[in-house]
Amino acid sequence: MRRTRTPPPAVQEQLIAALLPDVHTEPPPHSPAPLPTLPAPALPTPTLPTSTDVDGLLVGMARIDRSGRLHERRLLHALGWTPGQRLALDVDHGLIVVQPSSTGSHALDSRGALPLPAAARRMSGIGSGPPVVLAASVPEQSLVIQPAALVARLLAAHYANLLGGHDDR
Question: What is the rounded CA–CA span in Å between residue 12 and residue 1?
């Protein structure tokens, strides 16, 4: 008796379809991932401290070091910011505004210094060497950094106006 082999039935394999997408169908539309909503940076409102209100606007001066870091422990401590604190940084009208933010892309370094990005320093006219004026609002948890030269120009114009003179700068 002789056995004859019958060919196996033709099987249509689906392996290729599982590995390669169907090029004849339209791909689904891509939707961008939702971004977290960040609070809008706000400039501190000046409040004059009274005998019962000592948490007003605090002012200080500092210099930016060669690495672009700001060391001003008194104001950062008054704000309650510690090393590792996440911060949001924005440049608004030539002023650098810093506020705490859990999603902030900046942080105080291990020594409590605030690294300021070069782009923010350039946009606000701040370089390493000349002093900067810092205004901290503890109730609003914000720090505003501006060049001392800007503050000097504003004060000169203000005093010239008070004294009736003209400031031609």
Answer: 33
Give the pLDDT of residue 46.
Answer: 57
**Are the C-beta atoms of residues 85 and 112 closer than 8 Å to each other?**
no
pLDDT digits (tens, 9 = 90+) for 32-51: 777 677 677 666 665 554 43
Q: What percent of the chain has pLDDT over 70?
A: 73
What tokens appear for 72 in the block? 């001003």
Amino acid sitting at position 90 = D
| CA distance to 2, 77, 99, 107, 115, per residue, from 80 (Å) | 94, 5, 12, 13, 17
Can you tell me the distance from the alpha carbon of 52 to that of 4, in angstroms, rounded to the nearest whole number? 107
Query: Is pLDDT above 80 for 98?
Result: yes
Q: What would the two tokens of residue 86 be? A: 């996440």
pLDDT value of residue 43 = 62
Residue 49: closest CA among 83, 89, 78: 78
CA angle 145, 146, 148 (to 5 degrees): 130
The predicted pLDDT at position 37 comes to 73
* DSSP structure string for 104-136: -SEE--TTS-EE--HHHHHHHT--SSSEEEEEE
- List the end-to-end C-alpha distance of the chain, in Å, as a whole number: 116
Q: How far apart are CA 146 and CA 159, in angstroms?
A: 19
